[in-house]
Task: inverse folding
């Protein structure tokens, strides 16, 4: 499971770690990055489990699908993982044979007689001033392997590079990025070789499967790559025709064709695919389409939606981590030519002939619905009234604004606290420090009102009468340690057991939460204390700590081991289930955990961060 734990090599100089962000990596004891699956797959953010054994290393997501594996076919089941003194992760058999290594060097490998590298790519000789690309006259052209080498244009102002991370790009000699396949395919991290010749540019993985290619069908086998003075990568024939260009401008490009029914913009149900104008931002209005190669930022700025050249539409976090894509719901991605939100409210992907490749299973069609990305990173089709008609995380529950004035009365704050309110039902008291915003106080009050009003009769709300909530906002533990009852929750002034790191907690009669974890990325006090935290949260902690309170107030502790199959983490898994139930964040759950949620709550709801004013 993901964690902050480091598994050190016998020498103590290196460690293996399955990070909270899903990356599985090797680093030095001084935290210098050496290797990780983030350079091999863009889907590492989906990682959930690491299986080390049986002659392989396999990373799986929470649906048990493989995200990455060291070997597609196990060579020797006896091989086990070893971290060498040089920081290389290897699979070593009982006989001492290396069946896989993070640096690609295997124990039985010998240098090829023809000077080829381990990917089978011919060695690239020194560049020539006449033509930096043409290094072979064979029909297959030149084959490049990943490296730090830059292939300069004749003008010397731009270069082509097949980077160690798998990206194939064009940049200026001042290292300004101009174009790259990272904007065209989410799978660029799998790239192993780049073939330039035969009228095409083709990027393949280690199994020789195509990752990306400039042309699906070669227009002229004589075309060769050229880097123009403006930094545009082109395929140009001996007669000067441009058969492909990184900026999309071809010498024989046909003029755009106006929609045949442009006079009736509302008749989108009959509009052929390919005629709707491109959306320029999110939320995306009906009657528009996604532009291939364009990155759309979410309203929060925390996520990006990208229509890749391989047909995939990918949703990523701001650090580039994969969150969702058409690859989860559609087949034949390369057939996808257009992705449209039509004016009848349907959201679908179409091929070049207008046939639907995939259609979102919307609850109902609404012409006023817009495509947007929620604060927690779900692609959603939402009406102006907030009804979710479709969502990539399947969360169609009502989303409510929690920043309105709650149904509560004021009360006298306890010593050291600045604000005090009591909810109408149940009578939960909320105390807040002066630094806490009104938005946060209102949100906490409304969320606990919404959670408790969804209790079934077997879980009476009045069990929470007299319960207390304490809300702080970023004060150092040195200050909070003197503030009761928060100060008595964690004994240490500094270090991993201090309130700077353990930023919150729950007991039978009260809980402590911090505004740093409301609709924000990262926790400053935790990072300052040496436990770096840059996670994006909505109301994760607000719901999580209340989950602990539900456990204690309704005496559920003895039941939880059975519900969670005697997993030793059952105490934390229960509030995580409640988080999932209320979308903070949502994850796939089945069996006994979801049955328990249905036993406690009569309905679901989600909470929006829109309108938060810190």
Result:
């Amino acid at each position: 499971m993901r964690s902050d734990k480091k598994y050190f090599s016998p020498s103590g100089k290196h460690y293996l770690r399955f990070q909270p962000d899903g990356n599985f990596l090797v680093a030095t004891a001084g935290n210098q990055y050496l290797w990780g699956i983030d350079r091999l797959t863009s889907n590492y953010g989906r990682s959930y489990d690491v299986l080390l054994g049986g002659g392989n290393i396999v990373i799986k997501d929470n649906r048990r699908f493989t995200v990455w594996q060291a070997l597609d076919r196990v060579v020797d089941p006896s091989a086990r993982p070893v971290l060498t003194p040089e920081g290389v992760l290897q699979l070593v058999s009982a006989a001492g044979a290396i069946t896989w290594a993070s640096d690609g060097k295997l124990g039985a490998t010998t240098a090829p007689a023809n000077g080829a590298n381990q990917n089978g790519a011919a060695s690239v000789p020194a560049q020539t001033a006449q033509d930096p690309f043409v290094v072979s006259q064979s029909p297959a052209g030149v084959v490049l392997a990943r490296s730090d080498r830059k292939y300069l244009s004749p003008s010397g102002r731009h270069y082509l590079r097949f980077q160690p991370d798998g990206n194939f790009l064009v940049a200026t000699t001042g290292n300004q990025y101009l174009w790259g396949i990272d904007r065209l395919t989410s799978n660029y991290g799998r790239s192993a070789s780049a073939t330039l010749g035969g009228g095409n540019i083709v990027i393949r993985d280690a199994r020789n499967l195509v990752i990306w290619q400039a042309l699906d069908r070669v227009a002229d086998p004589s075309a060769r790559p050229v880097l123009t003075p403006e930094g545009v990568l082109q395929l140009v024939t001996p007669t000067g025709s441009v058969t492909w260009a990184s900026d999309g401008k071809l010498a024989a490009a046909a003029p755009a064709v106006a929609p045949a029914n442009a006079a009736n913009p509302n008749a989108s149900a009959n509009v052929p695919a390919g005629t709707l104008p491109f959306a320029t931002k999110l939320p995306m209005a009906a009657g528009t389409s996604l532009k291939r190669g364009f990155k759309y930022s979410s309203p929060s700025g925390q996520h990006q939606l990208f229509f890749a050249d391989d047909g995939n539409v990918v949703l990523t976090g701001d650090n580039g981590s994969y969150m969702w894509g058409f690859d989860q719901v559609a087949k034949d991605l390369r057939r996808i030519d257009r992705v449209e939100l039509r004016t009848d409210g349907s959201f679908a992907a179409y091929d070049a002939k207008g046939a639907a490749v995939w259609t979102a299973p919307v609850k109902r069609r609404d012409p006023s619905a817009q495509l947007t990305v929620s604060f927690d990173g779900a692609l959603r089709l939402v009406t102006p009234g907030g009804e979710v008609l479709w969502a990539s995380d399947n969360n169609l529950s009502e989303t409510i604004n929690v920043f309105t004035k709650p149904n509560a009365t004021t009360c006298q704050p306890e010593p050291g606290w600045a604000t005090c309110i009591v909810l109408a039902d149940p009578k939960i008291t909320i105390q807040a420090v002066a630094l806490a915003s009104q938005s946060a106080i209102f949100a906490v009050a409304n969320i606990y009102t919404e959670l408790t009003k969804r209790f079934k009769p077997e879980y009476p709300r009045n069990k929470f009468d007299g319960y207390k909530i304490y809300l702080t906002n970023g004060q150092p533990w040195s200050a909070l340690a003197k503030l009761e009852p928060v100060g008595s929750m964690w004994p240490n002034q500094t270090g991993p057991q201090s309130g700077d790191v353990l930023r919150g907690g729950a007991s039978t009669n009260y809980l402590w939460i911090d505004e740093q974890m409301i609709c924000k990325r990262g926790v400053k006090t935790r990072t300052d204390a040496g436990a770096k935290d840059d996670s994006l949260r909505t109301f994760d902690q607000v719901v999580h700590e209340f989950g602990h309170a539900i456990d204690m107030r309704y005496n559920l502790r003895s039941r939880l081991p059975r519900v969670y199959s005697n997993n030793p983490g059952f105490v934390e898994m229960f509030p995580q289930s409640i988080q999932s139930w209320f979308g903070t964040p949502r994850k796939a759950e089945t069996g006994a955990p979801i049955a328990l949620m249905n036993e406690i709550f009569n309905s679901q709801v989600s909470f929006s961060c829109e309108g938060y004013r810190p």
